[in-house]
Amino acid sequence: MLTDSHCHLFYDEILQDIDNVFVRSKKLGVNRYICVGTNINDSLLSLDISKKFENVFCSAGVHPHDSQNVDKDYLQQIELMMKSKKMIAIGEIGLDYFRNISSKKIQIKVFHELLQLADNIKKPIIFHNRDADKDIIDTLSCYPNVIGVSHCFSSTLSTAKKLLDMGYYISFSGNLTFKNSTLPSVAKYLPLNRLLVETDSPYLSPEPFRGKSNEPGRTRYVAEKLAEIHNISFESIANQTTKNINKLFSI
Of 15, 32, 34, 183, which is least surrounded by CB within 10 A? Predict the structure, then answer.
């Protein structure tokens, strides 16, 4: 069975149909989910969803797009949420220089603050990186005791290897399956014991659903593509990525 290591179940298109979403996921072999927060409000929603469903875990964080809007006590709010056994990581955090919705200065400041919190409370992180490779590596390097996963990896093999050397895991999403994707040429050189799979639902639907609203069951298509790239069975990918998630997030 597979775990969707990164989804946003609090979006209306998923939440309003969540029971059927889980039924469809189970039919595709996906039976566990990590619901990832991107700001204080939806981190609280993620926690609420996780309390209702045994097979849902969650995380709390501030996405770089939301970093300009944090409250003065946002770190205390996240630390309080992290006391729940269902909260397994700090995330989604990171840097996004593609859109720059928040300024680079604010993004880096909030990223540092959340990494320091992760270091203090000994929790792994789930981080976002878009067009910010150098600053991601430089910032993470300041916290050598923090581990985590580069979610929806979309960068170069060189960056992936640097992150692996620092102890991080790499997670692939639906963009691994896109016909014009360069990511298969990255994924094939990465060790299986450091890889995760995800959907980033409701975003980034894999082929053959590209352009449509995504949902967690489609983790299967990412796993199947990863199995094809490594020339091993789907079952092997499912078993290995599940082991990796259990180890990283202590679940």
Answer: 15
